[in-house]
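Structure (tokenized):
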């Protein structure tokens, strides 16, 4: 009873403490934060007043990091945190003032239309923390990074937008320039040197600009760049172009991370001019004061975009230029070649006559130099050609020709045209009729190793060649194809010299070969005299097969059914039930000697003889059922004696 009274008093005391703690405000209600009445109160009756954003519970009360729908056509951002929400009814007929803040203005211009709550929370933080704007905060403004886990994504957006604003905010400079497209230098001694300028006037500023080397064509390169206040290129801004004296000029270009270029072509000799303009982010934001209500937040919105412009001009005259390409850079002796040529620099519909000469040399030509062994194969004339790409008449390559051949072009000069002469050895004008080697190969399998025997013919006599023999291993028989397959086992390179008949024979080093197929691919590297050549993959003569080794004969199969396990021995006969033992009498004291087990009234039934163990098993051992009953009786007697001793001890103490 005494123990129960103590437990009741403790329980009553605990309940009293909990009641007092609840009354003084120490209960679970503390987790709810400060009273709701502080800070900005969400207007539940006007849910459309808020754009995307996140509520923040500060010590001073709630505040909304996000946009407001104060105006129907743009997002608004408060600059007085903790005051009343800027509902539309408080801003009827409100007039805007402008405040210069280039970075915030850029951020609102770029991101105010976002539907992301994290982006809008970042913009709201920028507006509140902008020292260039007026503020009357009732809840201290904070960076999203200081507002907890709920603002983690907004903190990343805030950091990104701030970095972009520092780099890309205005004021801006639009810069455009026009440069003539210069023709290829003429290096032959009988041509006019390119170190002198054209006799025609083309530069828009003759005094300030240095002389330009080379001769301009009827084309000009327009370069457009838009620079921010930091000097960075501002990308993705459309620029409108207005041009005069041009044909099919673009009307817009889009700025990039690097200056953007485009090519303009003059429609007639004279002045080519360009005027460019672009809409860019403003440097100011619009600030609105509420026209009604008390303690209502002021808001800012993006201002209208600014405009930037620039102009450039260039004087151009008709100055022809020819770029060419031979129709076949590996011509076949006895067949024909033509000159694919492009004329530029002719103003308007002006046409000219082009003379084409085909030359041959036994040594490799050098650009701009006429070799001593060069001789003319033939020539053709293309009359009345204007700007654009054309094809000359055909010239036949001699049957016994091996070596190099190339075209040169000439345009005669007149009053409207400056003379133009092409140079020798232009790479795109040059063709070569090479020696065309091939290889006959035979793959050899010797035991568990393989090698390839290669015979090359058709090389230029005495020339050097590089051979590459690659071995591939596959599990299935390969089918011949141009594309190699399988596991690459070996790559062996050989540098050889052809004999007087253009022939070379080599054997590759043996390689170990596993079961399956190995196929070789031979490649002859191209050079200035020999044509490159590669064999197919999977050519039968280049393929060997190693079959798997024969396995010894299999032993006779074992019977599918497992041998029968010996059956379990029959269970021993049940033992007769033992009579219940009388309860031990209570004893006042613990006896010095262990209690003696009482003897049953009926004689114990002799134990049945143990059943013989089945073949292969040991006889069963362990405790019998009678032994377990005797042990349980001893445990119960000891437990009862212990309880009596404890009860007697308590009565003596009471």
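Design, position by position:
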């Amino acid at each position: 009873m005494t123990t129960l009274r103590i437990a009741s008093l403790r329980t009553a005391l605990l309940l009293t403490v909990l009641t007092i703690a609840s009354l003084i405000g120490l209960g679970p209600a503390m987790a709810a934060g400060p009273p709701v009445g502080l800070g900005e109160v969400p207007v539940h009756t006007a849910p459309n007043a808020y754009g995307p954003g996140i509520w923040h519970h500060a010590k001073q009360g709630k505040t909304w990091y996000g946009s407001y729908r104060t105006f129907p056509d743009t997002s608004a951002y408060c600059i007085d945190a903790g005051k009343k929400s800027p509902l539309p009814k408080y801003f009827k007929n409100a007039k805007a003032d402008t405040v210069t803040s280039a970075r915030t203005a850029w951020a609102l211009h770029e991101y105010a239309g976002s539907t992301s709550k994290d982006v809008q929370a970042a913009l709201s933080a920028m507006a509140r923390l902008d020292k260039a704007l007026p503020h009357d905060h009732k809840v201290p403004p904070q960076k999203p990074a200081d507002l907890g886990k709920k603002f983690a994504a907004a903190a990343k957006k805030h950091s990104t937008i701030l970095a972009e604003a520092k780099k890309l905010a205005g004021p801006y400079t639009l810069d455009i320039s026009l440069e003539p497209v210069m023709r290829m230098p003429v290096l032959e001694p009988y041509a006019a040197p390119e170190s002198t300028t054209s006799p025609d006037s083309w530069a828009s500023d003759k005094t300030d600009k240095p002389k330009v080397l080379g001769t301009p064509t009827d084309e000009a390169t327009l370069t457009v760049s838009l620079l921010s206040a930091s000097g960075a290129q501002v990308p993705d801004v459309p620029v409108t172009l207005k041009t005069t004296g041009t044909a099919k000029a673009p009307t817009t270009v889009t700025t990039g991370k690097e200056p953007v270029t485009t090519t303009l072509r003059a429609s007639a000799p004279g002045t080519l001019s360009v005027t460019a303009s672009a809409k860019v982010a403003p440097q100011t934001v619009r600030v609105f004061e509420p026209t009604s209500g008390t303690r209502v937040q002021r808001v800012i919105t993006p201002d209208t975009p600014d405009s930037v412009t620039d102009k450039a001009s260039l004087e151009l005259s008709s100055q022809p230029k020819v770029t060419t390409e031979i129709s076949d850079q590996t011509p076949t002796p006895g067949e024909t070649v033509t000159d694919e040529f492009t004329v530029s620099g002719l103003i308007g519909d002006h046409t000219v006559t082009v003379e084409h000469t085909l030359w041959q040399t036994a040594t490799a030509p050098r650009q701009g130099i006429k070799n001593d062994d060069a001789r003319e194969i033939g020539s053709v004339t293309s009359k009345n050609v204007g700007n654009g790409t054309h094809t000359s008449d055909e010239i036949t390559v001699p049957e016994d020709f091996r070596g190099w051949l190339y075209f040169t072009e000439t345009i005669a000069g007149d009053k409207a045209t400056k003379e133009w002469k092409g140079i020798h050895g232009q790479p795109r004008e040059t063709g070569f009729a090479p020696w065309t080697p091939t290889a006959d190969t035979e793959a050899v399998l010797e035991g568990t190793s393989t090698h390839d025997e290669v015979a090359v013919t058709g090389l230029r006599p005495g020339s050097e060649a590089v051979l590459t023999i690659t071995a591939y291993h596959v599990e299935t028989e390969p089918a011949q194809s141009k594309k190699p397959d399988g596991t690459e086992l070996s790559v062996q390179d050989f540098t050889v010299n052809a004999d007087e008949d253009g022939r070379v024979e080599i054997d590759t080093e043996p390689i170990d070969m596993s079961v399956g197929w190995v196929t070789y691919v031979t490649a002859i590297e191209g050079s200035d005299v020999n044509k490159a050549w590669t064999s197919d993959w999977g050519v039968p003569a280049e393929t060997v097969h190693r079959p798997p080794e024969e396995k010894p004969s299999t032993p006779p199969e074992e019977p599918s059914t497992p041998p029968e396990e010996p059956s379990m021995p029959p269970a021993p006969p049940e033992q007769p039930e033992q009579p219940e033992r009388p309860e031990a009498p209570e004893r006042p004291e613990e006896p010095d000697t262990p209690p003696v087990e009482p003897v049953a009234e009926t004689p114990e039934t002799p134990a049945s003889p143990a059943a013989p163990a089945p073949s292969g098993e040991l006889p069963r051992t362990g405790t019998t059922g009678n032994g377990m009953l005797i042990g349980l009786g001893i445990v119960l007697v000891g437990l009862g004696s212990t309880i009596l001793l404890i009860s007697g001890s308590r009565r003596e103490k009471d």
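Reviewer-requested clarification: Helices lie at 2-23, 102-111, 117-129, 152-168, 625-653. The CA atoms of residues 236 and 255 lie 5 Å apart.
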